[in-house]
Write a structure and sequence with these properties.
Elements lengths: L3 E18 L3 E7 L1 E5 L2 E2 L8 E3 L13 E3 L4 E5 H11 L13 E4 L12 E4 L4 E7 L5 H9 L7 H4 L6 E7 L1 E4 L3 E7 L7 H6 L1
Parallel strand pairs: 7-8
Antiparallel strand pairs: 1-2, 1-8, 1-13, 3-4, 3-12, 5-6, 7-11, 9-10, 9-13, 10-11
């Protein structure tokens, strides 16, 4: 019996980008297509089968520990980007400024889709959602260069709207204009979730 349930939600790929060097500049260059391998977008700053652990998993590992790379892609929602921009007092935010890999349109409350959900393109290319991508100050610094006075507002404005990180489960080509279907884990919410979060 399949443990991933096909939903009625389908999103359009409205923007794709590639970060050349996230240590020098988090911004992404827009592209019309991504050729995704199992290690991600080959040559992109976040690609690779493994990565060095960072502060987000510091409760598990000493920073720099080699771990599986489930943060190959940064996936955002156009609807949530628009909400972030409005909260920051901007007309819009160029996805390039926040280091986006993929921007989708059409899935409500996208940042909170369940971890381990899949997004599958029409040719079979499939990415797996790792978890929510918590906002940090780095995109704000890039935004500040384009919109002086607005960059420091990003972290608060992006709370619960920053999108997700994801990794490639099935290789393939993804192009602007493609559609991606959402599949979610077919399981109930863990009964002790709230208790575990409080500890």
């Amino acid at each position: 019996m399949p443990v991933l349930k096909k939903t009625s939600f389908e999103a359009e790929v409205v923007w794709l980008g590639r970060v050349a060097n996230s240590k020098e500049n988090l911004s992404a260059a827009p592209v019309e297509a991504l050729d995704l391998a199992l290690g991600g977008d080959v040559g992109e700053a976040h690609s690779g089968i493994t990565r060095a652990s960072c502060s987000r998993v510091s409760g598990l590992y000493t920073p720099g520990t080699e771990i599986m790379n489930v943060r190959q892609l940064s996936v955002l929602s156009q609807e949530e980007l628009d909400l972030i921009a409005a909260e920051m007092g901007l007309q819009s935010i160029d996805p390039a400024l926040v280091g986006a890999s993929i921007v989708l349109k059409g899935i409500p409350d996208f940042t909170h889709v369940p971890p381990n959900s899949r997004l599958q393109g029409s040719d079979g290319v499939t990415i797996t959602v790792d978890m929510e991508n918590r906002p940090c100050v780095l995109p704000g610094r890039v935004i500040e260069g384009e919109h002086p006075g607005h960059g420091p507002k990003f972290k608060a404005a992006a709370q619960d709207k920053r999108g997700v990180t994801a990794w490639v489960e099935r290789a393939g080509r993804l192009s602007v204009g493609d559609r991606m279907r959402l599949f979610v884990p077919d399981q109930p919410v863990w009964a002790l979730y709230d208790i575990a979060r409080a500890r």
